[in-house]
Specification:
The complex is a heterodimer of chains A (287) and B (253). Chain A has a single domain, classed as ABC transporter involved in vitamin B12 uptake, BtuC (Orthogonal Bundle), CATH 1.10.3470. Chain A has eleven helices and two strands. The longest helix of chain A has 30 residues. With 253 residues, chain B is α/β, with parallel strands linked by helices. Chain B folds into two domains: 151 residues, P-loop containing nucleotide triphosphate hydrolases (Rossmann fold, 3-Layer(aba) Sandwich); 76 residues, no CATH class. Chain B is 38% helix and 25% strand. Chain B contains ten helices and ten strands. Chain B has a six-stranded mixed sheet with strand order 6-7-8-3-9-10, sandwiched between helices. The longest helix of chain B has 16 residues. Chain B starts with 5 loop residues before the first helix and ends in an 8-residue tail after the last helix. The chains are: A mainly alpha (287), B alpha/beta (253). The interface between A and B is medium-sized, with 20 and 31 residues.
Chain lengths: 287, 253
């Protein structure tokens, strides 16, 4: 039963990892931008949530109402102000610039919030649990997993059922032709980054409720995000959820074997997938 | 007070005016002091040998390439500094010699991108426009096919479809008849004639001369990036310079 429990808890944890990864996947899918600062942007979401909670006394989940639009606005401005200028035939400039952004963000966190680990207090939600078939499942992990499914279903809907998604796919398919069809590439990229950071805001707040975070917490989240994206297959949003779940299960099962194995097991699972299926488990079929 | 010179009368309402365009890639000049005007509702044919700079001219007009010198006036407005997207929304659309569909999207979605982005339509109006155009270009039965899996002819039709869904005032066609069979070509000519009759101004680059002559009102000849002849199609085709440069027939043969 302990093993079943580890797998179930890992699956739920995978929902959080999928949320880390969804924004990363979206940005890469639309504009082929590898965002090294993604982990720090998740932590930015958490700090913004913390600020709202401290200033207003709201429940952290309600803080989403402020943090999601704020992060989306930051995303649009960031993309139009800086990142658009780095995009081109060379893949190095966006890597360097987002790496620099990562350093800047970490130091701003340090300056603004000190190096002490912080955590958002979600009250009874943190310890609430339901009993299912002999397993005790935390309400927060269940909620996180539910939100992950909802977010990915929403992104899927936006991508394949709305004019905005059609614009994303057109720009992703052929930038030059998309512009000749009247699409403003810079604006579309701005909207993609806004959407990605809106998702990142949700991930950041859920992270900040689940565990403590500090200015340097972004790096590990970036790695989890990358691993989930690559396990699931680039450009496949549902694959990203599966990737997150595989990563989460590997970590909890690894921890079950030996607590010291938690992170290592996750990375090993990633390396195994990379060795066997270099394109991920569910690569997007290309046209 | 003397009357306005002849050329001013002729150019009273040009939809497109090209003034002294220059473009060079290193030592290779692809546009050399290129100037011409296209009247509202006119169909202009462009001929010239391969590598003469015809497609480059389209790139300059649509804004994917910036000229080194010169100006492009569209509907009386100087658009030389405007982005390709903005020119498209103002009413320019083109097809590509080598079809460039959004290969990961369906034929209908390809059309919808043009209809929603450049015509600014939405919802059912946009969908209806796409269906009408797809019907006109004989692609309706392939509306749900992935664009990347189309045959060459259908890709060319898709190029035309997308350009038309942008509801252009100026339509630029780049060798759209190349590689088609005789009957396909005949139906294409009819389609383009219909488009022209609906008031759309057309610039058509084409090597299939009989297709071109069936539609255009005027012809210009381009070689080494500059305009070497301009006038009524029959006269141009009959002129010895054109026959030599373009068709490879020697003057004194």
């Amino acid at each position: 039963m302990d093993w079943v429990n580890a797998v179930v808890q890992g699956t739920l944890l995978g929902g959080l990892y999928a949320l880390f990864a969804a924004g990363l996947s979206l940005i890469f899918g639309v504009m082929r931008l590898v965002n090294i600062a993604h982990g720090d942007l998740i932590v930015l979401g958490a700090y913004l949530g913390l600020t709202v909670v401290m200033a207003t006394g709201l429940h952290p989940l309600l803080a989403l109402v402020f943090v999601v639009p704020t992060m989306a606005a930051i995303g649009y401005v960031l993309q139009r102000g800086i990142l658009n200028k780095t995009l081109g035939d060379d893949i190095l400039p966006p890597l360097l610039v987002t790496f620099g952004l990562s350093v800047i963000l970490q130091n701003l966190f340090l300056e603004g919030y000190t190096a002490d680990p912080q955590k958002m207090n979600a009250g009874a939600l943190e310890t609430a649990s339901v009993s299912v078939g002999g397993l005790s499942l935390g309400v927060l992990p269940l909620l996180t997993f539910g939100i992950a499914i909802f977010v990915i279903a929403s992104l899927q809907f936006i991508f394949y059922r709305t004019p905005l998604g059609r614009s994303f796919r057109a720009v992703s398919d052929n930038q030059e032709i998309a512009q000749l069809m009247g699409l403003n590439k810079r604006h579309i990229f701005g909207l993609a980054m806004a959407l990605a950071l809106a998702v990142t805001a949700i991930a950041g707040i859920l992270l900040g409720i689940r565990t403590s975070f500090d200015p340097t917490a972004g790096g590990a989240r970036l790695i989890y995000g990358f691993e989930a994206v690559i396990i699931g297959g680039l450009g496949n949003l549902w694959g990203t959820l599966v990737g997150g779940v595989i990563l989460g299960v590997a970590q909890t099962v690894g921890a079950k074997i030996d607590p010291g194995w938690q992170l290592l097991a996750g990375h090993i699972a990633f390396l195994v997938v990379l060795a066997i299926r270099p394109n991920g488990l569910f690569p997007r079929v290309s046209g | 007070m003397c009357a306005a010179p002849f050329y001013l009368k002729v150019q009273m309402s040009p939809i497109l005016q090209i003034n002294g365009l220059n473009k060079a890639f290193g030592a290779v000049t692809v546009a050399d002091d290129l100037s011409f005007a296209l009247q509202q509702g006119e169909a202009l044919g462009v001929i010239g040998p391969n590598g003469a700079g015809k497609t480059t001219m389209f790139n300059l007009i649509t804004g994917t390439l910036a000229p080194d010198k010169g100006a492009i006036l569209f509907k009386g407005e100087n658009v030389t500094k405007h982005s390709a997207a903005r020119r498209c929304r103002a009413g320019m659309a083109r097809s590509f010699q080598v079809p460039q569909p959004f290969s990961g999207m369906s034929v209908f979605e390809n059309a919808m991108v043009a209809a929603t982005q450049s015509s600014g339509l939405s919802g059912q109006v946009a969908e209806q426009l796409c269906l009408d155009v797809l019907d006109q270009t004989a692609l309706l039965n392939k509306a749900n096919t992935l664009a990347g899996s189309l045959t060459l002819l259908d890709r060319k039709r898709l190029e035309l479809t997308r350009a038309l869904c942008a509801k252009p005032k100026l339509l630029m066609l780049d060798e759209i008849a190349g590689g088609l069979t005789e009957s396909e070509c005949t139906s294409l000519i009819q389609t383009i004639k219909d488009i022209h009759a609906s008031g759309v101004s057309i610039i058509w680059i084409e090597h299939v001369v009989h297709a071109l002559l069936a539609v255009v009102d005027r012809l210009i000849v381009i070689d080494f990036g500059s305009k070497i002849a301009e006038g009524a199609p029959k006269e141009i085709m009959a002129s010895p310079e054109v026959q030599e440069i373009y068709l490879g027939i020697e003057v004194d043969a």
